[in-house]
């Protein structure tokens, strides 16, 4: 589904929350919490391997559909039959079946309707008087009347005999009808245009609920925000519409010669070998066409290995197409269907070009596109995805039409190919898709619409107190948080993994492997986490925990910077601290007065046992500024401490360590330290061990390793050591 939140809004939120953030007590970094063991809740099973692959006994059930419906244009009504062949591949005999009746969301008394706020929602209108939902005429199972019951958007069918495990098959036939809402939760609907209504039809037939090895039957109701979880199979659809209509649908049109004129068929053939868009039915032809239907036409489609089927029908469609070139040498076809209102080269006139570019990019980058056509339809949805066909808003133009087209077709990979459970794990399709869209947009037409987004400035947006964790169920988060939690934050998480943690090559290899393992299957978040860790060879539980499971913040800062012994030629001592709860590999850029710079990278392991870290940069020049995360790759809740200006730092005065020598005692705790100058450095001798001390200025000496910090009084006769908030004073003997 389309991202519903625009970039300027993000910046607005970000500015707003900066001021809010500072007023709250921040939780401290705890490295044991961040890196604790036993991240995974389950060990490997027969169905899911510890490496993230499907297990040696992985199974999933199968649903094949034969759909036969008619459209009543006047009443906006669909009626017909759905024949389902259901195969039970599980280890369990099944006593009953569950089906999804998504149209029941549009009944006035549905659970989803009850959740619509007075102030309005993307998923419906609380003041609407529309009464939708399925009318079920009959349900037959293997030819006999079935016993069934309906609760909200679910239907349960009782089986007289078990459906046998490991391959048992049953046939379900449902006669049904429904009146389509004009605006179907931003996912389907009916839109009037000057040359006729556009019907964008989805969630339009009873579909099998998924029976899996995680939950058994997945029966969460359709409430609006939570999308879909569906079985794979083949679908054939016969769709009867007024003869003036043109129909586009998932998969391949089987009877082109029956529904298109000879001239149109010739144009289709031209499009099949053309990289440039070929008009099949022009705006002029649409405007001149008769508006009065002479009877009906039946359009027949077929799509294999699919989790759904959607279609659109209208007398108003301009249709155009171009060839899609796939990496294997196979071809597919990019098709667009839109009304004259959407025509024009700054609008839907480029839709097929966008579709072709998007599918070609994703096929090359991740996995080859599997379907014979990819169709973009102009409707009244913001943007919604289905196998082989997407609906984008008819008013979208230019950059926004590219953005929504690319996003909806990106969904072919997540979740149409990689069939995760959208209703529970919305971030696994929207977030992954948002991530791949960024790379695709960068790639399209030399970056025509690409603007690099600074992740660094998004810290206060991602880590806002008002957001739930990313792994929250879509129906379990506030509607206004859906943009951040399902799209932007998990999308940015993938970018951080790619650019900061693993590097492009390792990350892309791991994500490709995940797609390959789980193509046309049902992965869980753990399968994803495990695959990325296994393929990249990197332990990432700290990142999964902080970014996805919790709402840990990122904030690293520079505490101090001093030249070694006050001499810039000897190098620079930097002290950095991890203030946020989520650690990250650190990149420091030291900029010198002569305009040159030096970069130092610290691995994540630095934060596995430290909350702050002091290290030497082997530089020999005078420093001007020091910057953390110089490329701005990491969101950070406090950018102030990311930059350190050397001019603000008073140079450390030169000292003579001999002046600090002596034996010092504290009577109260009965302790004695000897301080001795050696090699131009002061050393603390204790129990015959010698600890070299670095001078920090203002009478302060430290030894980082031993955690020693001594502060001398001006007269050098006493020093204090601070430990556990207690001060101990030592006096020269
Ligand atoms: Zn989406």
Describe the structure in your own words.
The chain has 733 residues and is of the alpha+beta class. Among the domains are: 64-231, Immunoglobulin-like, CATH 2.60.40; 556-648, Immunoglobulin-like, CATH 2.60.40; 657-732, Lipocalin (Beta Barrel). Helix content is 21%, strand content 34%. The protein contains 15 helices and 40 strands. The strands form 8 sheets. Strands 5-4-8-2-1-15-19-17 form an 8-stranded mixed β-sheet. A hairpin with a 5-residue loop joins strand 21 (318-325) and strand 22 (331-338). It binds zinc ion.
Concise account of the structure shown:
With 733 residues, the protein is α+β, with helices and mostly antiparallel strands. Helices cover 21% and strands 34% of the residues.
Keyphrases for this structure?
15 helices; Immunoglobulin-like; 733 residues; eight-stranded mixed β-sheet; eight-stranded antiparallel barrel; zinc ion binding; binds zinc ion; alpha+beta; Lipocalin
Shape: elongated
The top-level CATH class of the domain at 64-231 is Mainly Beta
Q: What's the CATH topology name of the domain at 64-231?
A: Immunoglobulin-like
Count, helices: 15
Question: Cofactors and ligands present?
Answer: zinc ion
**Gross CATH architecture of the domain at 64-231:** Sandwich
**What composes the largest sheet?**
8 strands, mixed
- Our Rg estimate from Cα atoms comes to 32 Å
- Determine the N-to-C terminus distance: 76 Å
Total strands: the figure is 40
Strand order of the largest sheet: 5-4-8-2-1-15-19-17
- How much of the sequence is in beta strands? 25-35%
Classify the secondary structure makeup into a structural class.
alpha+beta
Q: Low-confidence stretches at least 5 residues in length (pLDDT < 50)?
A: 6-23
- Helix content estimate: 10-25%
């Amino acid at each position: 589904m389309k991202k519903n939140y625009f970039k300027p809004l993000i910046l607005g939120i970000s500015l707003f929350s900066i001021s809010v953030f500072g007023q709250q007590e921040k939780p401290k970094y705890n490295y044991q919490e961040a890196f604790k063991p036993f991240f995974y809740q389950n060990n490997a099973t027969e169905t899911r391997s510890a490496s993230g692959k499907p297990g040696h006994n992985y199974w999933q059930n199968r649903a094949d559909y034969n759909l036969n419906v008619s459209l009543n244009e006047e009443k906006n009504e669909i009626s017909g039959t759905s024949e389902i062949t259901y195969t039970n591949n599980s280890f369990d005999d099944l006593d009953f079946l569950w089906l999804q009746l998504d149209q029941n969301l549009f009944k006035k008394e549905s659970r989803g309707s009850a959740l619509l706020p007075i102030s309005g929602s993307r998923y419906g209108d609380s003041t609407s008087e529309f009464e939708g939902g399925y009318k079920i005429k009959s349900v037959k199972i293997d030819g006999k009347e079935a016993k069934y019951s309906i609760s909200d958007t679910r239907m349960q069918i009782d089986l007289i005999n078990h459906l046998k495990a490991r391959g048992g098959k049953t046939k379900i036939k449902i006669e049904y009808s429904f009146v389509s809402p004009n605006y179907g939760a931003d996912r389907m609907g009916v839109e009037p245009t000057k040359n006729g209504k556009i019907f964008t039809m989805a969630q339009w037939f009873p579909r099998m609920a998924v029976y899996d090895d995680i939950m058994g039957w997945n029966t969460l109701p359709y409430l609006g925000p939570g999308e879909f979880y569906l079985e794979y199979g083949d679908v054939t659809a016969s769709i009867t519409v007024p003869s003036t209509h043109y129909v586009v649908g998932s998969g391949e049109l089987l009877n082109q010669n029956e529904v298109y004129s000879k001239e149109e068929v010739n144009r289709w053939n031209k499009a099949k070998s053309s990289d440039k868009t070929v008009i099949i039915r022009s705006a002029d032809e649409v405007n001149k066409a008769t508006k009065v239907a002479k009877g009906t036409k039946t359009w027949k489609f077929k799509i294999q290995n699919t989790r759904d089927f959607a279609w659109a029908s209208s007398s108003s469609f301009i249709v155009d197409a171009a060839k899609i070139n796939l990496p294997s040498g196979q071809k597919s076809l990019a098709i667009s269907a839109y009304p004259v209102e959407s025509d024009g080269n700054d609008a839907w006139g480029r839709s097929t070009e966008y579709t072709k570019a998007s599918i070609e990019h994703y096929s090359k980058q991740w996995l080859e596109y599997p379907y014979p056509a990819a169709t973009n339809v102009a409707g009244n949805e913001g943007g919604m995805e289905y196998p082989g066909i997407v609906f984008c808003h008819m008013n979208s133009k230019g950059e926004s039409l590219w953005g929504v087209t690319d996003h909806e077709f990106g969904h072919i990979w997540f979740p149409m190919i990689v069939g995760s459970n959208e209703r529970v794990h919305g971030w696994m399709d929207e977030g992954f898709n948002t991530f791949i869209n960024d790379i695709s947009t960068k790639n399209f037409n030399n970056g025509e619409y690409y603007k690099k987004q600074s992740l660094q400035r998004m810290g206060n947006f991602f880590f806002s107190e008002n957001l739930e964790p990313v792994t929250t169920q879509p129906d379990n988060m506030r509607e206004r948080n859906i943009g951040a939690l399902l799209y932007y934050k998990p999308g940015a998480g993938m970018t951080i993994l790619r650019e900061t943690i693993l590097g492009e090559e390792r990350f892309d290899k791991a994500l490709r492997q995940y797609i390959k393992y789980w193509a046309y299957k049902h992965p869980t978040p753990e399968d994803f986490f495990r695959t990325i860790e296994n393929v990249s060879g990197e332990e990432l539980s700290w990142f999964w925990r902080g970014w996805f499971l919790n709402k840990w913040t990122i904030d690293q800062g520079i505490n101090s910077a001093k030249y070694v012994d006050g001499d810039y030629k000897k190098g620079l001592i930097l002290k950095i601290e991890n203030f946020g709860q989520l650690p990250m590999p650190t990149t420091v850029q030291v900029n010198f007065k002569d305009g040159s710079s030096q970069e130092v990278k610290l691995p994540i392991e630095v934060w596995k046992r430290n909350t702050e870290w002091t290290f030497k940069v082997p530089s020999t020049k005078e420093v001007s500024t020091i910057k953390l995360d110089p490329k701005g790759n990491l969101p950070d809740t406090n950018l102030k401490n990311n930059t350190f200006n050397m001019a603000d730092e008073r140079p450390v005065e030169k000292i003579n360590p001999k002046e600090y020598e002596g034996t010092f005692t504290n009577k109260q705790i009965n302790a004695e330290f000897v301080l001795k100058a050696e090699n131009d450095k002061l050393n603390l001798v204790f129990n015959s061990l010698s600890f070299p001390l670095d001078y920090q200025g203002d009478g302060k000496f430290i030894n980082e390793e031993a955690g020693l910090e001594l502060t001398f009084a001006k007269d050098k006769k006493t020093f204090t050591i601070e430990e556990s908030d207690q001060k101990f004073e030592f006096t020269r003997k």
